[in-house]
Amino acid sequence: MKETPIKKQIIDDAIADYGIQDFSKATIREVKRIAEYAEKKSGVEFIKMEMGIPGLPASKVGVDAQIKALQDGIANMYPDIQGAEVLKNEASRFVKAFIGLDINPVGCIPTVGSMQGTYAAFRLCSQLDDKKDTILFIDPGFPVQKMQLQVQGVKYETFDVYDFRGDKLAPKIESYLKKGNISAIVYSNPNNPSWVCLDEDELRAIGKLATQYDAIVLEDLAYFAMDFRKDLGQPFEPPYQSSVGRYTDNYMLFVSGSKAFSYAGERIAVVCISDKLFDRHFEALDERYQGLPFGMIYSARILYALSSGTSHSAQYALAAIFKAASDGTYRFREETREYARRANKLKEIFLRHNFHIVYDHDLGESIADGFYFTIGYKGMTSGELAHQLMYYGVSAICLVTTGSHQEGLRVCTSFIKDSQYEVLDQRMAIFAENNPV
């Protein structure tokens, strides 16, 4: 056995000190803290792949617009709970330009990141019908969304999409919907962490079932237009970002500024509600909220109760970003394409050293390169692999924490530096030698 870059005792003691009994269930923050501790204790730089934080500079278009808004004195004014008119108009235009959907500006509502957007949506959807007390996740997915439901005391069901792609997806979803207790369906597209992308046929099936069983689809577009196998960057020209919005009126789209525009620190997103859903009345909601329609309850009641509005200056930043993108003067995908380049290099290193890609195909097509991908190692469980890699100064989270039933890890490309590819190659060579397949 070759000596590992970091002494095993350092990692094992840190894990014990944090009270983590099953490393496969360690959270992102726990893995991050252990990596930081071990890095400081050993003096060995970690290759950090656990955190889904943008690794690119924030959009200059947004920064300039936000600075101007602050200089114009906007910080002393409460934002309109419905959102700044300029953002609502540009959000509607952006959705038309890059998704091809018509959504009235009134239904484009800013939130404090998509995190607040989904929290509020879960709260509202769980009140639509007393019999529909459960949210359905098409997993794997963002772990914190389930934490949001835990905080709210709302039930959820989940299944791993790994074995249910294509024609198998609709029957699987319907097996839950026909119970009559599902109020909403949640997924991300592209998917965090697997990076699979639901295609138009799958989305058509989801939309049809959502209409048939009257469930609301919560489509998380956190990694907007990051399927780099397609040219999704031409405004008002197909191909467009795939969306369930073409196949049902029961939808809410969550468009975040965090990853597509590297604007995570300002906590800004828009939730785009279909015109029909925005104006729709539900009996249970009418009783609770004095006859307000769905969209107004979402903004004027739930969001208002949570934060009294979204950062005023950040709304002007996102409005400027949307405008420049729709005008074709800001090619945001050319910036985020860097994640695909990193993923391609990282995959080559891992594959060469006997790892495999867990979610490796997308309906017969190789998985796209992007912000995330997944790795496994023959003979190792998720927890064992994550624990072992810490000895080699590599940190990642286990797929089980995302709702996946597969053995493996989520790798995030965002923090990778050019100087680390050679280092990773050397460390994984030692790993493969120490762990022969």
Note the topology.
Layout: H1 8-17, H2 28-42, E1 47-48, H3 60-71, H4 85-98, E2 108-111, H5 113-125, E3 134-139, H6 143-152, E4 155-160, H7 169-177, E5 182-188, H8 200-213, E6 216-220, E7 251-256, E8 269-273, H9 275-279, H10 283-288, H11 294-307, H12 312-327, H13 332-352, E9 355-357, E10 361-362, E11 365-366, E12 372-377, H14 382-390, E13 394-395, E14 397-398, E15 409-412, H15 420-434
Helix pairs in contact: 1-2, 3-12, 4-12, 5-6, 5-11, 7-8, 13-15
Keywords: Aminotransferase, Transferase
Pfam family, one: Aminotran_1_2
GO molecular function: pyridoxal phosphate binding; transaminase activity
Give a verbal description of the structure.
Strand 5 (182-188), helix 8 (200-213) and strand 6 (216-220) form a beta-alpha-beta unit. The chain has 2 domains: 8-56 and 332-434, Alpha-Beta Complex (Aspartate Aminotransferase, domain 1), CATH 3.90.1150; 60-327, Aspartate Aminotransferase, domain 2. The chain is globular and about 70 Å long. With 437 residues, it is α/β, with parallel strands linked by helices. The strands form 4 sheets. The chain has a 7-stranded mixed beta sheet, with helices on both faces. A 4-stranded antiparallel beta sheet has the order 9-12-15-14, covered by helices on one side. Strands 1-13 form a two-stranded parallel ribbon. It has 15 helices and 15 strands. The longest helix has 21 residues, at 332-352. Keywords: Aminotransferase, Transferase. This is Aminotransferase, class I/II.
